[in-house]
Amino acid sequence: MSHSSTTEPTVTLELALDHGLTEQEYQMILDRLGRIPTFTELGVYSVMWSEHCSYKNSILELKKLPREGEHLLVAAGEENAGLVDIGDGWGCAFKIESHNHPSAVEPYQGAATGVGGIHRDIFTMGARPVASLNSLRFGSLDTPRVRFLLDGVVRGIGDYGNSFGVPVIAGEVCFDESYEGNPLVNAMSIGLVKAGETASAIAKGIGNPVLIVGASTGRDGIHGATFASEEISEESEAKRPSVQVGDPFTEKLLLEASLEALQTGAVIGMQDMGAAGIACSSSEMTAKGGQGMRIDLDKVPAREEGMTAYEMLLSESQERMLIVAEKGQEQKIIDVYERWDLHAVVVGEVVDGDQVTYWKDGEIKAQIPAEHLVLGGGAPQYVRETAKPSYLEQTQQFDSTTLEHPTNLVETLERLLQSPNIASKRWVHEQYDTMVRTNTVQGPGAADAGIIRIKGSKKGLVAKTDCNGRYVYLNPRRGGQIAVAESARNVVCSGAKPMAITNCLNYGNPYKPEVYWTFKESLAGMGDACRALNTPVTGGNVSFYNENPESAIFPTPIIGMLGVIEDVEKHKMSPSFKQEGDVVMYIGAPRSGIGGSEYLKVIHGLTTGDAPELDLDVELRVQQTVLEAIQGGMVTAAHDVSDGGLATCLAEMAIFGKKGAQVDLSVLKGDTIELWFSEAQSGIVVTCTADQKETLLTHCNAHGVPAVELGVVGGTSLHFKDSGELAVDHAQDVYESVLPNAMA
Question: What is the reported pTM?
Answer without folding.
Answer: 0.94
